[in-house]
């Protein structure tokens, strides 16, 4: 995965949404939230996902660990749609992204390790793409600062029709206002695509500690949202959404610790998850004694 950095500006395609802070440990209230999100998306060949891909990606994690690299990233695998893996890296700025890529390129040992891992990983892939997105504070709602406990990522993507940004802004004001009023624990991060795909694309990521949170949303939060918006508000929202958005989709991903290079703080928070032990090989039974007399 980290082969992106060696080429300096890897750009990855849109998918959906953002919890704002996956990949870089930031203490809430003590540091500015990372603004730049770099995403790589890898589609695996049939039969090449699962542990086969996990093993190939672990070579990148090992290379970064041996180099004690300061920039972290989080990998995840699809539970819906085509089999694929996503890799999220957050930066405070585009300048920080540039410096990280340049530093990797200057580190001969790390670059060589990344190249070797990339060659092996490439044999498993059907295609890959990259993109860069920018955090929108105005369109986000209480994005989680600590994502060390996030296990699933609910990803939504919206494409806004050219010339309809004003209606889209009104849509987000209505949605954010209703959730602030009716669903106090609602949270998401919004990112706008800057490079690597079709303009007018917005991504929303919602971190989930458990899929039971989605059950709760279906049974309770949707009703609270509708009640907070009211009948007239829902009508206005539907009209503005239909006028401004020409396509949308929602996908679900599971965080994959074997594909992730995270901070020591995250590992300490849940070592059983972030540093899973390899399954022990079954014990070999001694050969049964031959009951027949030997010649």
Feature tags:
disordered C terminus; 8 helices; 8 strands; 8-stranded antiparallel β-barrel; alpha+beta; 295 residues
What can you tell me about this protein's structure?
The chain is built from eight helices and eight strands. The protein has 295 residues and is of the alpha+beta class. The protein has a single domain, classed as Alpha-Beta Plaits. Strands 1-3-2-8-5-7-6-4 form an eight-stranded antiparallel barrel. The N terminus and C terminus are likely disordered.
Q: Layout of helices and strands, plus pairs?
A:
Layout: H1 3-6, E1 36-44, H2 51-66, E2 74-78, E3 84-91, H3 94-106, H4 108-122, E4 125-141, E5 152-160, H5 165-182, E6 188-195, E7 201-208, H6 212-244, E8 245-255, H7 264-269, H8 271-274
Antiparallel strand pairs: 1-3, 1-4, 2-3, 2-8, 4-6, 5-7, 5-8, 6-7
Strand % is 25-35%
Here the CATH topology equals Alpha-Beta Plaits
Helix content: 25-40%
Alpha carbon gap, first and last residue: 60 Å
SSE string, helix = H, strand = E?
A: HEHEEHHEEHEEHEHH
Low-confidence stretches: 2-30, 279-284, 289-295
What is the strand tally? 8
List the strand order in the largest sheet: 1-3-2-8-5-7-6-4
Could you name the CATH class? Alpha Beta
Quick one: overall form?
globular
Number of helices: 8
Structural class: alpha+beta
Report the C-alpha radius of gyration, rounded.
22 Å
pLDDT averaged residue by residue: 85
Instruction: Describe the main β-sheet briefly.
Output: 8 strands, antiparallel, barrel
CATH architecture: 2-Layer Sandwich
């Amino acid at each position: 995965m980290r082969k992106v950095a060696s080429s300096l500006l890897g750009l990855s395609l849109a998918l959906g949404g953002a919890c704002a802070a996956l990949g870089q440990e930031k203490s809430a209230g003590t540091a500015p939230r990372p603004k730049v999100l770099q995403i790589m998306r890898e589609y695996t060949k049939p039969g090449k996902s699962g542990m086969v891909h996990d093993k190939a990606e672990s070579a990148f994690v090992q290379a970064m660990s041996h180099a004690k690299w300061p920039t972290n990233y989080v990998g995840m695998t699809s539970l819906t749609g085509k089999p694929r893996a996503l890799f999220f890296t957050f930066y405070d700025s585009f300048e920080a992204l540039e410096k990280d890529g340049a530093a990797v390129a200057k580190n001969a040992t790390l670059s060589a390790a990344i190249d070797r891992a990339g060659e092996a990983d490439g044999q498993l892939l059907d295609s890959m793409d990259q993109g860069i997105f920018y955090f929108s504070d105005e369109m986000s709602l209480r994005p989680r600062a600590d994502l060390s406990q996030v296990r699933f990522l609910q990803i939504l993507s919206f494409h806004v029709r050219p010339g309809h940004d004003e209606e889209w802004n009104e849509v987000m004001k209505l949605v954010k206002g209703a959730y602030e009023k009716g669903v106090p624990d609602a949270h998401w991060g919004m990112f706008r695509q800057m490079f690597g795909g079709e303009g007018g694309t917005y991504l929303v990521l919602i971190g989930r500690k458990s899929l039971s949170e989605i059950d709760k949303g279906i049974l309770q939060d949707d009703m609270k949202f509708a009640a907070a918006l009211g009948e007239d508000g829902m009508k206005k929202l539907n009209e503005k959404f239909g006028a401004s958005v020409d396509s949308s989709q929602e996908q679900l991903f599971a965080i994959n610790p074997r594909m992730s290079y995270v901070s020591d703080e995250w590992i300490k928070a849940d070592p059983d998850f972030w540093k899973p032990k390899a399954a022990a090989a079954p014990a070999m039974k001694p050969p049964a004694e031959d009951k027949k007399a030997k010649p």
